[in-house]
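We modelled the chain as a single entity of 316 amino acids. Its sequence is:
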Amino acid sequence: MKYRKLGASDLQVSEISLGSWLTYGVGVKEQASRVCVDKAFDLGINFIDTANVYGRGAAESVLGETLAGRPRDSYILATKLFGAMSDTDKGLSRAQVLKQIEASLTRLRTDYVDLYQCHRYDPDTPLEETMAALSEIVRAGKVRWIGFSEWSPDQIEAAFAIPGVEKFVSSQPQYSLLWRRPEAKVMPISAAHGVSQIVWSPLAQGVLSGKYRPGAALPADSRGASDSMGNSMQSWLQPEILEAVQKLKPLAEEAACSLSQFALAWVLREPNVASAIVGASRPEQLEENAAASGLVVDPALFAQAEAIVADIRRAR
């Protein structure tokens, strides 16, 4: 496993990180979650990403129990706030920042998180209030570094223009061969401000593994066929997308790797990306994906892959 510096922080994060959206505490049973987390450590993955809203606390609780026996300095833990935890608990107000960090720390069974992220931008709270509250919990030792997820370029710039507050070190965008929107503005702005990307859905929720074939039934043990995890990926399961992905397989074969590894290596080719977040319901999935770290692929093969999927448009 290779490691990269996370923006202007002092954190060295594994190039492949373990996420928990739709999996731990939701679509994956607790024992399977523990097996996957243990395998992640075995593979050198030191960065674990979650959020308070995943299963409305369930993912954090499962991870808290799973991680309880490990030295706290042996892993880097990231969580988020913004989404609705109840009818009244949501957003990025000072009250919510102070309340939600305490709830997350309790569920995660830790005194601090290494990275606390704004899951989305809150248009109903003044940005100055949010940044001051985040700075307050950093200075109280409950959070080491702060980040954001899916903020617009203008929102990012506005946060960095506020004086006297802690600065973001990470951005968590959706990014993959099939979704390149952050390249235009978010990545250049981030690089200028000492912010790294930690990418979610680098495999387009598994579509870039190549296991979903056009015209074929969904694999029974796949995320796409899961009642609890499959709904969010329906927009990726379009015939034209699946057909284009199948055309990528010969390129991966030429690179002597699996299609998943090829797609992850493509994401990691970008210097502003510190880590690619993968989900896993089985340890063998992690073994395959972790092998993408440090993988050297001919840039000409990446260029061919980009050309194959250039005209793909995902249904929204």
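As a brief sanity check on the tokenised model: The chain has one domain: 3-205+261-295. The CA atoms of residues 138 and 144 lie 6 Å apart.
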